[in-house]
Amino acid sequence: MVRNSWLKTGVVAGLAAFAVASVTAGGASAYVACNRYGECWHVKARWAYPRTAGIVFHADGWRFARPGYRWAGDHPGRGYWRHGAWVRF
Which of 42, 58, 66, 76 reaches 20 to 30 Å from 27, CA-CA? Predict the structure, then answer.
């Protein structure tokens, strides 16, 4: 009976740790997406953008490596910036 109690405690503790890790890890994944014109914005998922959009992904902490990049602004939904306009796809 003592073994069963320790087993239950271990399982509950393991599930609690998994739940905490799942919640904290989900919010941390983000990317910076930039198009060929230097317009950049944050995205939470690496969508399969059209090849013609010329989208490149960087880690969330990425900073502009060369002149010509600028923040276009974050936008909800699936799409990308092109010449200052948000294009949905």
Answer: 66
